[in-house]
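pinging the channel bc i need a second pair of eyes. not urgent but kinda urgent?? the chain im working w is below, pasted from the shared doc
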Amino acid sequence: MMNPLNRGLVLLLMAFSAQQSMAADKPVDSHASSLPLSQIQSFVETFETIREGYVDDLSDQQILNKALKGMVAALDPHSEYLTKDEVADFEDLTSGNYAGVGVEVEMKDGKLTVVSPIDGSPAKQAGILPGDVIVKVGTTYISDLGFQDVMNLMRGEVGTKVTLDIERGGKIKHFSLERRLVEDESVSSKWLSKGIAYLRIKQFQGDTDTEFYKIVKKLQKEQPINGVVLDLRNNPGGVLQAAVGVVDTFIDKGMIVYTDGRHKLSKSQFRATTKHTLLPKVPLVVLINDGSASASEIVAGALQDHQRALIMGTESFGKGSVQTVVPLSNGAAVKLTTALYYTPNGRSIQAQGITPDLVVPEATLTLNKDHFVVKEAELKGHLSNGTGGADRTNTAEQFKLSDLAKSDFQLFQALTILKTLPTFDYHP
């Protein structure tokens, strides 16, 4: 007796055959695509060949899932077919509440590349870096696996361990990580100096913009904000609407981002409003690097086009495509690339990224201990300051760099510029 799946495939073939016969009696329509009957037949034959002859015994549903995954994954690095169980996992990821190692990855040139480890995650604490290439998860080489399959390998029960083999600089490094429940607040803040606030967005979740507004208002109650460093380094992106909301904090009118694709539903525009514009004139420096992707690039690109911020750091990742999760009748879904997004001035970020206004590489500062000078205050019989100021000699204190300069040179540069940066003459 023929099983239901095979019977369905046969009926599908019969329907295609009947439809093609009917089409043969009609005038040719250049806009109507012909039904791929021979390809459908090839699919059925391939399906049967795998079912009957593959070394492992796979169920019909397993074979069909693999076929669907392969079909969608072949489109681009970001499109994928999600089973019903994977849809639930995907929703956990976008909510920022899941058990795993806390690393954001993308397929880049056929390699599973780390965009960024999430702050406070096992991956971050273990020393995994943006640009690392994951070659093996546990005992499984990932070269032939789909994106979601790799994610499933890295996720698991809280407290269990997983090993990652990572290629970095031509060498393989081995990491052993303990999975944890990642409950990640996406926004953090602190004061860098009087009146200068530091705001870091780790990733864009569904409520990131609301969280961002609350933190800004809290800081404003503590003291006036005279400058802001917005840190988007190693932020892999996330929810588009959250990125739009963050930009809305700094501008009150004009385009923020627009999307364009084949279908009408993929064409959209997002414009600034006055509802949440809390800091329309405050000097702003935005930090980005090669781990800043997607929604991070939307924020940086919009603020750059509006001349509302100085973008500093290194060139961003370059993911300028929009994925839409399309639910299917059986509970599965297709995460499909449906459009590209564009900055207010019409720039596509896809495969190019955002170029900073001021390129500042990541660097480690060291003191030249052999440097020796003699200053006026050390000369015998030197004149005093004349206004009561104390003498300044060539002491070791003069060579000490601040802790910030040593630990984060890019942030140190941003703070230095903010202290002298005039208020932006903002004209959207």
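so DSSP finds eleven helices and 19 strands in the chain. and The CA atoms of residues 196 and 227 lie 5 Å apart. — does that match what u expected or am i reading it wrong
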